[in-house]
User: Which sequence fits this backbone?
């Protein structure tokens, strides 16, 4: 069984839930809110991907700091019954995720009992999200999209998020639902972020990439080249020498920026190329000298 999704009232009892969580046949498990006596059990599930909704009050009452979360791909929704953002609960849970530090995917969502209210995400929560991401050095996907984006908005925090995440070395995807204006005039904030971190793609919940269909597209293209060049470093030397030489002389001979990036990643190959050329020139020179000497002796 690849994926299992339970919705609404599951009717699961503790014994049945424990059996399900021990099963190695489920790779992705999606669970709704559970009864209080078993509410913390899903975090111990030995699954590749866990997506779980939990009440903020349950997290607040639980021993979050000793919580053992097995999965490396975690999606969690904190449900708040009150009319204020669950700051204390969220901070405690994020700090536990930061302490564990083994996640490769995190999806963070908030939902509220009153679906007509508007809730401001506190600055301290935004900073803790950034700290959690940085504390998970293998994190590749950070998903901040939510079905309640009309209630909880990240709009005014985009600059803080991009600035805070720019140095994350493994992050590959940042998902967030915001208006294009959130990226600043002429996408200036996004442009700077993609320049600082060439590994990340920023998209919305529908996997649509944020772009101006002009300069940002070109920047994404350059960044793809950058990643491809960096990946070549692990290629065997002889094969890499041939690939880099071909790229420099044929594909990117007129593109200074791509050529510069290529050479910065493969300076050792440049040395080999120059060395081979000098050896060839030396051999040609010696051959010419021998031919000239033979002609003189005949004369």
Assistant:
């Amino acid at each position: 069984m690849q994926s299992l999704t339970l919705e609404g009232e599951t009717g699961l009892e503790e014994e049945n839930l424990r059996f399900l969580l021990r099963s190695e046949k489920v790779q992705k498990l999606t669970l709704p809110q559970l009864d209080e006596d078993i509410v913390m059990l899903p975090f111990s599930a030995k699954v590749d991907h866990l997506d779980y909704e939990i009440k903020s009050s349950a997290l607040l009452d639980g021993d979050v700091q000793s919580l053992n979360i097995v999965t490396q791909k975690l999606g969690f929704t904190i449900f708040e019954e009150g009319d204020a953002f669950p700051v204390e609960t969220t901070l405690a849970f994020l700090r536990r995720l930061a302490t564990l530090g083994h996640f490769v995917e995190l999806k963070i969502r908030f939902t509220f009992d009153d679906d007509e209210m508007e809730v401001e995400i506190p600055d301290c929560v935004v900073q803790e999200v950034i700290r959690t991401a940085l504390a998970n050095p293998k994190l590749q996907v950070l998903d901040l999209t939510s079905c309640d984006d009309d209630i909880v908005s990240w709009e005014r925090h985009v600059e803080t998020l991009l600035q805070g995440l720019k140095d994350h070395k493994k992050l590959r995807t940042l998902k967030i639902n915001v208006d294009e204006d959130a990226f600043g005039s002429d996408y200036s904030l996004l442009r700077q972020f993609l320049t600082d971190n060439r590994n990340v793609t920023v998209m919305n919940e529908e996997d649509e990439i944020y772009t101006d269909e002009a300069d940002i597209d070109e920047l994404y293209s350059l960044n793809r080249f950058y990643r491809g060049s960096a990946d070549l470093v692990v290629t065997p030397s002889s094969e890499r020498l041939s690939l880099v030489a071909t790229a420099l002389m044929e594909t990117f001979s007129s593109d200074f920026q791509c050529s510069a990036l290529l050479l910065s990643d493969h300076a050792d190959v440049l040395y080999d190329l120059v060395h081979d050329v000098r050896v060839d020139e030396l051999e040609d020179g010696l051959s010419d000298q021998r031919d000239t000497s033979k002609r003189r002796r005949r004369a």
